[in-house]
Amino acid sequence: VGQIAAFHAIRASDYYAARWHETVAAASTLAQDLRALGLRVWPPAANFVLCELPPERGDAERFAGAAARAGLYIRTPAGMGSTLRPGMFRLAVLDPATNARMLRILRGLLS
Which one-letter DSSP state was computed for residue 43? Predict the structure, then answer.
């Protein structure tokens, strides 16, 4: 089944190219909006955005707990290697409505 799906996916390159362009645009917009909230944000290179909390906000593990209680799940540096700092976290790039919801939650947590 997987090989059949891969075969059809390869044949639908226009569809996947369009999805890639949509994801790049959404990631860029999300990164810009996150910077406006005072987060340090690295240029996105995938379907997620790498962010860092301001030092006075503490570590991402504690922030992730507060975010989860608000209904937002973020990925913290735990298990992502030793080069990431404790205040860093990842956010998935999703559809515009979900990205807007994530931003509302983050705005509330950071205000």
Answer: P
Beta sheet of 40-41, edge-to-edge order = 40-41, 48-52, 88-92
Contact between 67 and 106 under an 8 Å Cβ cutoff? The reply is yes
pLDDT of residue 2: 80
Nearest to 52 by CA among 74, 27, 69, 29: 74
Instruction: Give the integer Cα–Cα distance in Å for 56 and 102.
Output: 21
67 alpha-carbon distance from chain centroid: 13
Mean pLDDT of 104-111: 95
- Reported as a single tens digit per residue, the pLDDT across 19-56 is 889 999 999 999 999 999 999 999 988 899 999 999 99
Residue 22 identity (one-letter amino acid): E
Q: Which amino acid type is present at position 97?
A: A
Q: How far apart are CA 99 and CA 4, in angstroms?
A: 32
